[in-house]
Amino acid sequence: MNLERPFAPKIPGGPALMGIVNVTPDSFSDGGKYAGESAVSHGLALLEAGTDILDIGGESTRPGAAAVSEAEEIARVIPVIAGLRAKTQAHISIDTMKPAVAKAAIEVGANIWNDVAALTAPGALEMAGKLKVPVVLMHMQGEPRTMQQAPHYENVLEEVGAFLRERALAARAAGVSHLWIDPGIGFGKTIAHNLTLLSGLETLKKMTGERVLFGASRKSMIQMIDGAKSAPEDRIGGSLALALIAAQNGADIIRVHDVRETAQALRVLRAAEGVK
Description:
Elements (H helix, E strand, L loop, with lengths): L15 E7 L13 H14 L3 E5 L12 H16 L5 E5 L3 H9 L4 E4 L8 H8 L3 E4 L17 H19 L4 E4 L8 H9 L1 H8 L2 E4 L5 H7 L9 H13 L4 E4 L2 H14 L4
């Protein structure tokens, strides 16, 4: 399978799109909506809508989320990944902090590891080196249950960049060849922190020497900025605005729920810029 293909996205001029397939009962946006065959069907629909990568997750990382056992996470994601791989050669990412879950997912067809803990779990670096797949390294201050209680930085851009640079160097030393970094929007950050990171994506790329994944789809910062209470699925306008700004600021992959709408917005943006 050609691991370089995410770097030639379906949208002329990019970025690539990573479509979210949550197989969890408690994710903030679509918890409990997809599992088993319904998750496979949803993933195939996202591919038809224009996504480049499917991101399969079996443990919610929303603020306050409870931990899930390794066995339960494997039971949730493996049938979905195997079912998708039987029907498509598209790139499939496993969204997990656990090395054993990543290993099980890669064995049945996933070919990217998206780790919100940036390979800090025991054995994660060694496992990534053995699996030899591209890895996404994300920054998170704290852990999901407590990360939004009191986020604090002296300089969020410098601190996030320094952390991601260190993790990228560690991953490459362990044998990982292809990397993306993710500033972790909403993972132990205030709105001000999130907006600073959004405007500083090119700075993060220069600090780390790595490509950037950006994910803010349907997140609560949109509701907070808007000032009107909204369900996650009613935050598409804000999600599109963030995606467009991220694309203009150098994001290489944008992780989204609403693939068709995001792809359409990005195609219009690139057309306006003269990209054909």
